[in-house]
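This part of the workshop introduces the protein records we will be handling. A record pairs a protein's sequence with a compact description of its fold. Comparing a sequence with its C-alpha cells is the quickest way to learn the format. The record below serves as our worked example for the rest of this section:
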Amino acid sequence: MTAEKILLVDDDSNILEGYRRSLIREFLLETALGGEQALTMAAENGPYAVVISDMRMPGMDGIQLLSRVKALSPDTIRVMLTGNTDTETAINAINEGSIFRFLNKPCSKEVMAKTITAALMQYRLVTAEKQLLEQTLSGSLQVLTEVLSLINPAAFSRAERARRYIHHVVTKMKLGNPWQYEVAAMLSQLGCVTLPPETIDAVYRGEKLSANEQAQYDAHPSVAAALLSKIPRLVPIAWMIEYQNRPAPRADDSEMTEMRLGAGILRLILAYEQAIHKGMSRTEAAHVLARQNTNFSPEFFQALVTLDPNAEEGEIRKSRIDDLSPGMIVQQEVRTNDGMLVVSKGQEVTPTVIFKLKNLLARRSISNDVTVSMPTTTLAFVKGAS
C-alpha cells in the first residue's frame, strides 16, 4: 500500500463504497460524500496527495471543489470524474481547477488504479522539486547570510530576527510557499554589505544619519534586489525585498499578488522589529501597526499578538563562550575591547558565531562572558533529555 493519502469524492455512497473495496489494498484511500465534507476532511486531515472528484454533485460541483482544494493545497494532484464530456466543462475545469486528468463514468477499477498511480508519480515529482528548492536553496542561503552576518552583524542579526518572526506569522496564517517569505527576510539586509559598519551601527542605535548616509541606507533594498534578480528562482524574492520600505505597485495576476503580500509582510515585520528594539512591548507594537495599516490582513496582526516572547527570550543568563550552544539567543551585544560590534542583541548563536567568539577570546579581544537566553522550546528539550 502507498503511504500518500488519496481522497475520492462523490455524492453517491454506493460508488464510493465500490471503489473503496476494490482499491483499499493498493492505496491509502479515504472517501467523502460531497464537496462540503471533502473540504472539511482536506482542512482537518490533509494534505492529500490526490483528490478525485465527481463533476456533478449537488451544492458544490467538482470544478468548485477542486478549485478550492488547489487554493488549500497547491501540490495536491486533482482528477475529475465525469459523465459529461462537453468542451465547456473541460475548459472550465482546466482553467479553474488545474485538472491533471479526466475520467469518464463509469470508470473501471483498472483505469482508476492506473490513474491514481500516475497522479501519485506526478505528486512525488512536484513535492521532490519543492523540497529541493525549499531545503537546498534555503539552506544554502542561510549559510550565505551567516557568513555575511560575520561581516555586518547588526544588519544581519536584524534579518535573522525578522526571519524568526515571519516564520511564526506565515505558519499562523497558513500561507502557501512559506519558505519564500523566510528567505526574503533572511536576505532583506543583503544590500547593507555595501555600507560602512559604522553607518549600520548608527542605524541600529537609532542615531540620526547625514543626508548622504541616509540616501545610501535607503538604497540598500534596491542593491539587494539587483543582486538577487540575477538568480531566476529568486526573482519574486528580490521583488519583495526591493519594496520592503515602500508601497508595492498593485497587480491583478496571482503571482504578483503573492509577491505584493510578501513585500507587505516584510515591511511590517521590519517595522515591528524596529519598534521592539526601541523599547516598545511586543503587544503594543502589534496594536500600533494594526492601527496604522487598517487595509492589511487582520490575520497578520492577530499572529503578531500571539508571538510568545518567552519562546525567544526564555531564561536569561551569562554564559562562558565554551559553554555556548547553537540555538541560544544573544541578549546583550558583544563588542571587542576597542568597541567593534561582533554579535548583536537578538542574534542566534550558531557554530560559526561560537567559532568566531573563541578566536577573538584566544586573542583576548573580548570578554569571556556572553549574556544569552535559552528559548523555552530548547529548554524543554534539554530538560526532557536530562
In short: Residues 377-386 have pLDDT under 50 and may be disordered. The CA atoms of residues 256 and 348 lie 32 Å apart. The longest strand covers residues 5-10.
